[in-house]
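Example noted here:
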Amino acid sequence: MTPDEINARLLYRDGLILVIDKPAGIAVHKGPKGGACLEDSFDALRFGLPRAPSLAHRLDRDTSGCLVLGRHRKALEKLGLMFKQGKISKTYWAIVEGEPEGEEGLIDLPLGRLDAGRGWWMKVDSEAGLPSRTLWRVLGRSLFAGKPIAWMEFKPLTGRTHQLRVHSAALNWPILGDPIYGTGGQREGALPLHLHARAVSIPLSNNKPPIDVSAPVPDHMVQLLGLCGFAGNPPVTHAIPSPAEAGEEAEPVTAP
């Protein structure tokens, strides 16, 4: 991504953290085979600091939405501890195939590696898996290509790899476009993964309200969310403070 492109995706900035709107289809960091990744563009997000920001957590390649970055070592240490302790709340939107029973619930299924040869692929593993819990709520329902779909809100209470994707599939409503756990794939015309990190809430200070940031729905999800009742993206207000408010010496960012 060019400096202008990555800056246009800046959702929040202060002296400690940045939140950007990650596009679907790009890895956040380089994998074993290399290739382009989002980290390659982080140098354009220094805003006067000597080093580029770093990832405070990760999103899958095909997941879009709120991605939190730490601007320096102390910020990363604090964010890492908050993620580990479950203090940072994350909200995801998805379109799933099928008909969830009921309108809300809790998925409590331990997850483990599928096998050593499948890298990060996961499975429900009641014997050796790690505790994994996801709150879910149905926000809307409809039909697509003659089959039922649902607009879901997910709130992961733990942070396992592919947690939402495996939990959804385990209840027989896989996330639409999932090439690993659902019916998506690499075939021509296959739909992309319909999973979006909609919002994040970060209680960074004991004396101030949490930092609440939301990311607009990506273009590839708007149509099916609309079928389920989504009214469209409201204008995004970029919470970009002045340098004094941010505790930094950089010039303020002009919100796109």
